[in-house]
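Lecture 7 notes: from sequence to structure.

We start with a single chain of 142 residues. Read the sequence below before looking at the structure.
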Amino acid sequence: MEQEIKLLEAIVKCSEMGQGTLDRPSEINENGFFADTMRIQRGEYDAIREEASRMLAAMGEDPGQLSAFEKLSTAVGIKMNTLTDKSARHMAEMLIQGSTMGIVDLTKAIRDNPGAGEAAHQLASRLLRSMQRDVEELKSYL
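Now the structure, written as tokens:
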């Protein structure tokens, strides 16, 4: 059960980070197709985070969330990175880098928690596939 909790917490954290990373680019973006791409990605992150949170709650666990420092650090980093270049190309590059970090973190969590239940592993795999698909889709904006 401990491994399942750890994996679900990693899913919540990773999907919440993905959502937060999309906020600033969504606010300043001027490319309609890129906006659609980000909206779809954000929706998938939200659905997966909600499912992981429900699974944790059913186990009597608090799904938790990113710390205020993590949220602030991400927001400030993105804001600084987009001060001089607000192009879809630049934002896609930033999102690819963030998704790649998420893929690495989630892959480690999956491998570190082989005893987690099948449902948690399926949800983690769904998030992993989603992030990989996002990277491929974002490449079209480079």
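The radius of gyration is 15 Å. Keep this in mind for problem set 3.
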